[in-house]
Amino acid sequence: MASSSTRARLRRRSTPAVPLVVLAVALGLGAVSNEIRTAAASRDAARPTISLPIRDGAHLVFTGRVRARAVARLQVRTEKRWKEAAGKRASRSGQYVVTTVLPGADRRYRVVADGRASVVRRFARPLAAPASGDGPAGVAPPAGVAPPAVVPPPGAPHDPEIQEPAAPLDPPAAEDRPGGPVEEPPAKEPPAVEEPEGELPPEEPPASEEPATDDCGVRPQKPEGGLWSCTFVDEFGGTSLDGSKWMPQTTWLSGMVGGELGCYVNTPTTISVRDGLLRLTSLRNLPEFTCVSPYGSFQSRAVVATVASKARFTQVRGSFEARMRMPAERAIPGSHSAFWLYPDQHTYGVWPGSGEIDVAEWFSARPANVYPSVHYAGEVGSSGANCPVPTSSSAFHTYAVEWTPTVMRFYYDDNLCFSHRWMPSNVTPPKPFDQPFYLVLTQVWGAAWNSPVAAMANGSTLVVDWVRAWQ
Questions:
Q1: What is one Pfam family matched by this protein (predicted)?
Q2: In which domain, by residue range, is 424 found?
């Protein structure tokens, strides 16, 4: 959306002219609905897979595959029924990792997704703790059941366990299903059967294929098939911003201002890294000071923060994602946060001719939604007004865009909420989105309908957990 804060980022203006934010653009929403329905119709009906239990301290960890972005519900067998123990939404590649508390006795586990059950994995609790550092004690198998072939040495990923065929699917009682009822399977579906020893589940890629993880973690699925490859990642470790990846924006060098004459500065109070998090902070009602600019210095009482990967990292197309928590100031006008992409060169003219991709914009006056948008010359219907994130200020969420030669798809917490195909007035598609763009993270004061009011706090902070890019 073309807010005044967005335009102020792009050029210095002492009193920017600000149009109202486009919140209810009907064009393009029909395309989003059709795309979502198409994706739903093409769901993979394969049975979920589940790994052997991996002991991690006081927890058990299971991994496997389900339909992309489906919820993998880990169930444990009680005396009378299957009871849900944990749940985790799968990634865009269909992989999941789910954790539960280490049981005090032998237990059987399975995963249910889309109403279908995986094979059953049995965890056999050691009879006694090991007397030394030589590893877990042996377990006497039940009568008629062969013991595990190997007792793992210290550090091995699996505790002793016994595999057995899955029981027929009987969903847990309604009171045990916090995420709502699990779909019932077809009435005549046969019980799940354990895969033969050593055989990979059919959903798992052969060993000769590309690895499912890289420096960015689990590799997302490309729309056309295959997996994205990591090109950029910052987990914000250490105690300072990584200068090889980010350049702080400063008004004294760029001449840019943020919001209502907010001066971009690079200080520990505006840009800081600690505890694995990047914090960008805007401050207001400061003692009046002179903000130095190459286009003429001016008096200001506000400072703002932006970091960009300009001259460090640029990319044409791909997948771009950030995990962030928006500022705490909710339903009070004044704060504006954003994760966006901007062209490295103005190949097709000044803004908006060369394009802009706003992955996630947040306005404190309207905090229940986060807004994706695509800007270019002659833009029509480029803002996504149907991307609610009610807990954007109280919890971390992931905000992503898949940029292809023909369409931008925006995913919030792995859910498609907006899709846009561009038709610029100055160039022919795929222009202007055929040139390298760089990453930008911004925390500024708002303007116009989102201008700070008296009730707005004097400080507002955007917290970023990580940023990743794939191609």
A1: Glyco_hydro_16
A2: 4-36+227-470
